[in-house]
Each structure stands twice: as C-alpha cells, then as structure tokens.
Amino acid sequence: MAFVATILLMIFHQWTSLTASLGILMMVVLLLHLGLPWLNFLKGLGFACFTFFIIAWLAFDLLTAVVSTLRLLAIGTVFFLFFQTTPPEALSNALLKMGVPYPFAFVLSASMQFVPVLVRRLANIRDAQRARGIPIEGGLSLLTHLPVLAGPLLIQAFKFADELAEAMEARGFGIPGRRFRHEPRFRWMDWMAVGISVVVLVMAFWSPYR
C-alpha cells in the first residue's frame, strides 16, 4: 500500500489533491498515536522541505514550489508510516516470499534495525561528551565538535558490525536449505488490501482532479 500511495502522490499535480492526501495521512498518523514520533521525524524532514521549497521557487514559480514541497512531505509521511508499522522481520519475510535472495533481505532488515541502534548510541555519546564539559548543542556548534561525536560513533559502529558478523557466522549464515519457524502467508485481509490498492490506483489514473 505504501508503494501505491507513493505512485498516487507522484501522479497528483494539483496542490488541492496533495493537501487532501496529506490530511488523510495525518489522520492515519493520529489514529495510530504516532503524532509525537512524526513531529520528531518532521524535525529532519522539515529542513529538507524548506530548502527544496526555496530552490523550486527560485528555479520555477511559487505554485510549483508548493506542489513539490507538499509531495515531498506526503511521500516522507508515507514512508514514516510504513517503517513505523512494518517490523523488519515481516518485511524480510515478505521479500523472501517474493523470491528475493536471503542475503539481500537480511541486509535490508539489518539496516532497518541498525539505524535506531546508532541513533541511541549517538545520543549516549552526546550526553557523555556534555558531561565532560564539551558544549555540544545544535547549529554551528555541532559542526565544530563533530569529531568528538563521529569518532566514538564510528568505533562503536565497527564493533557492532564485527559482533553481528560473528553471530551470523556462528548461526550458519549462508548455508543452503534454510527453514523458517513461521512461514509468511497471504491472508484475506492482505488480498483485500491489494485489491483496494489496485482499484484506488486505477481510479486515480482516470480521475480529472489529479
């Protein structure tokens, strides 16, 4: 459904359609009680949207800048919802069911779990450096003290990757004939979601309001 939603947002060219789509996405965010995580996500995406808006306005016109920024914000929200509601194991199992090689599915699943670990470790490093008296704040001061953050983070990332490689080797990673405890199966709700997505996509292509 995230793939279909992305296609829909790409074919919409009117700011009204994109605004309505963003409103629907925000209702989904609120229904799933993800308002606070979305605001934290917006802290990073907001700067990118603002920069993109300025560049598009200077290069084209105001309407194009508004439409492009709304599309970027909506697509970012779609993927935010996707990663917040889809466990990495479920995504990797679905890819395996589609015939994707296991190493590729594992790398994707591991990377999804690796990023939050690095974010938590970065926060711990920042707190530790502040306790040592290093004034690490936002803005330009963060760039000034970037080595005291990046150095320990890289060392911990390499250690974590080495430990993960040893654990994978100990568990027989890459050995053929792999079996899974829970085989992913398509349920009736999954088929219904696929059918609704296809119908909505076809209707959107023929809609005069896109």
Distance between the termini: 19 Å
Query: Which residue ranges are poorly predicted, with pLDDT under 50 across at least 5 consecutive positions?
Result: none
Structural class call reads mainly alpha
Largest β-sheet summary: none
Helix content percent band: over 70%
Shape: flat
The percent range for strand residues is under 5%
Short note summarizing the structure:
The protein has helices at residues 2-11, 15-31, 35-59, 62-85, 88-97, 102-131, 140-144, 146-170, 188-206. The protein is mainly α and 210 residues long.
What does this structure look like?
With 210 residues, the protein is mostly helical. It has 2 domains: 2-85 and 185-197, no CATH class; 90-170, no CATH class. The protein is built from 9 helices and no strands. The chain is flat. The model has no long low-confidence stretch (mean pLDDT 76).
